[in-house]
From TrEMBL:
Database matches in InterPro entries: NepR (IPR041649)
Matches recorded under Pfam families: NepR
Full protein name: Anti-sigma factor NepR domain-containing protein
Superkingdom classification of source: Bacteria
Domain Anti-sigma factor NepR: from-to ranges: 15-49
Length: 56
């Protein structure tokens, strides 16, 4: 199928908007705090690991 220049530019703009939106969402996720329940789970896992190391 043949694409003229205006279609190519439109696709390029569309891809640019998608890229910008994905970056924005990714950055927002990076700046979110870790929920307390995940911190608690990580602390429990670390405590178990420490106990196992002490037994070895």
């Amino acid at each position: 199928m043949y694409m003229d220049m205006s279609d190519a530019k439109g696709k390029s703009r569309l891809h640019q908007q998608i890229d910008e939106n994905l970056r924005r969402v990714y950055e927002d996720l990076l700046n979110e705090e870790v929920p307390d329940r995940f911190r608690d789970l990580i602390a429990q896992l670390k405590a178990r690991e420490t106990e196992r190391e002490k037994r070895s």
